[in-house]
Amino acid sequence: MLRQPALPLLPGYNFNNNIGQTKFNRKQHFQLVDNVSILSDREGSRKPSTYMGGESIDLPPWIVYDKQALKFDAYFQETLNEINRSPFQVREVKLLFFLEDGTIQIHEPRVDNSGLTGGCLVKRQRVPFPPPNHRSFYDILALNVGKEIEIYGRVYKITNCDNFTRTFLNRCGIPVPDPINVPDDPYKKFRASEKINYLARKPKAKYDTLDAFLKYDRQVLRFWGYWDDRSSEYGQLHKLEIHYFLSDGSFEIKDILPPNSGIELRSMFLKKMKLPKNFTGLSGIGEITPVSLLNVIGSQNNTRFIDDALNCGATSTEYYSDRDLVFGGALNVFGRKVTLVDCDAFTKEYYRKKYGLDDFTPEPMPAEESTCYENQTRELPPWNGFGSHADSEINCKKFMLKAPSIDLKQFMTKDRQGFDALQLRFSAKMISNIPENADRYFVVTYYLGDKTISVYELACRNTGFSGGNFLRRMPVPKPNQPKFSAERPKLYDNEDLYVGAVLNINEYIFKLTDADDYCFRYMELHKNEFPKADINLIMHKVREAIRPIYREFVAEHIPKSDTPIIHFETLRNVLDSIMSEPLTDHEKIMIARHFAPECTYQRFTRNDLRRIVLTEIKRGLWNDLDRFKEHLKQMDPYDTGHLPKFECYNLIRACKIPIDVEIINAMFKVLCKDENCDIIYNDLINFIDVNYEPLPDVPPENFKQKLSWLSEKEPKRSQHIDWRSFNKFLNLEETIPLPPPIPNYDEPINT
What we know:
This protein has 751 residues and is α+β, with helices and mostly antiparallel strands. Among the domains are: 132 residues, PH-domain like (Roll), CATH 2.30.29.170; 145 residues, Roll (PH-domain like); 124 residues, Roll (PH-domain like), CATH 2.30.29.170; 106 residues. 23% of the residues lie in helices and 21% in strands. The protein has a 6-stranded antiparallel sheet with strand order 6-5-4-3-8-7. It is elongated.
């Protein structure tokens, strides 16, 4: 219903135009072309201008003119009321007319030092004509070279167009005139003729510091010096650390304060700043700025605060640089004389490359006549016998009671790691005036993790001693030390434990007679910690003792047979007779182990060990071999046929096979292995199977002790010495004849 303005807005005074109308739908703006809904033109589909009349195809304009625009060069004049002798300025723009939808965009190129930001002046949109034709929009007929168009109150003069625009308009039947010149800009002429030096709001610095920053960033010259203030009351000698930053030429000085000096902690003697050579006072406001401003009225445009090109009010301040830093030289740090005495390696290399200096002899530091502090150690009360020395010491130092700390590094590196126990076991005998104590046998265990010692007694028949723990694991101090003292007693260390050593443990005297193979191997691998196991030191003593009688020694003890082997007893007797300082038993064993001939001694054969294992299985009534096979197959998913030693050991213990640890270790030595020393578990199954190749039982016996290294009263490892390797290691004379090589009787004899 449309309202009639001449009639009042009341019922009955209006006319309803919908009376008699049957269709009330909105006008369709879309049409279906090739099953695609597109916006239709009211006047019909546009035809591209590149085709002749009647030959073009019907396409929508957004496809025909996609990404096509007409480009014109134009300018407009902008009035300048605030600038003298420049009524206006000419601003050049680019005008784009998009053929796709008839929109216009105006862009002003950016010009350096013009004071204008440039950019987009009119965003892309359909621009209407000025009133009264504001209901129509600009099209290609209104845009041509030489025409003036008014857009939102601003008149643009079109001066030129590009080649595409000229060709397009010509094909449409629109002639394009020749380009016209842009009029001169009076404002640019005025600026060029007067050469006015306009000052920016924030004047830029005249000195470029970026180059020095990029070249010398994080490069600091470090010197050490002092400031002697002892002439003043309560003064002292200040030791200083001077830093010179190459990036900006600033200084930073730190005061090196000794501990417990009683001085307030102020490490900064001078904060980071440039250090003037002659300080006369604080500078005034704006005195040290790079640009000077004059509060005067300028000759052009009534401008105030112009730049002082002559720098009439500038003051010159001389600062310290790297040229002034020399040993023995003094720096005036705001009235305090700081003397340089030494520098670091980087500073020396810097002066060597830049200035060619080679003499960097440090200057002596003045001696301190009197110190204001003394390093005093805390005196602890003597130990009263309760608890350990470490517990008493920490309770005296700390107000809050806490457990004494341990050596964490030694604990992490020397404590048990998997199957590596890191324990040294020695067999020992007690030295006593009581005849019954001479037949007692002990095992002394030294724990590398915390340097503690435990003693275990082996039970022997008809001795009257039951055996067991003789001394629990605990730190054992060395003898002949004051008992009730404030200092911790010295404990037995790695150097004190070797075969032949005598230990005083709680007034019981023990002599170490032997050790297990693990102990000997560990001491050989860590010979820097155990000098008694260093074969080089041992043979050095032997070499110096044999050197004077070397020829007689070789002539008397060279093997007469074809086999280059001598008895160790013979060599030991000779060494005991010629050595000024007798070798210890451990050193003799090291010689026997190092120069042992390449032959093995086997106490128990494979059949002997299998008889022992089968006897123990029968005595333990174990009959679960099928389950053991199943576990072995489960642990070997790829069916390789071999498993590592520790997995087999864990499985034997998990299946509760009644075999002792010593027997298991001896069994692993005779089982079949692959190239990686992994156990072939089929051989292990046959080894413990009582039905596979049965063997007779062995009589009941303590197999654990029989297989242990302690059961070897006379170890077979030290019975013979390889003469060739021993003589070669001495290396006293290369012309000593050696016995002929051993013939190989396996080779066929040539007749």
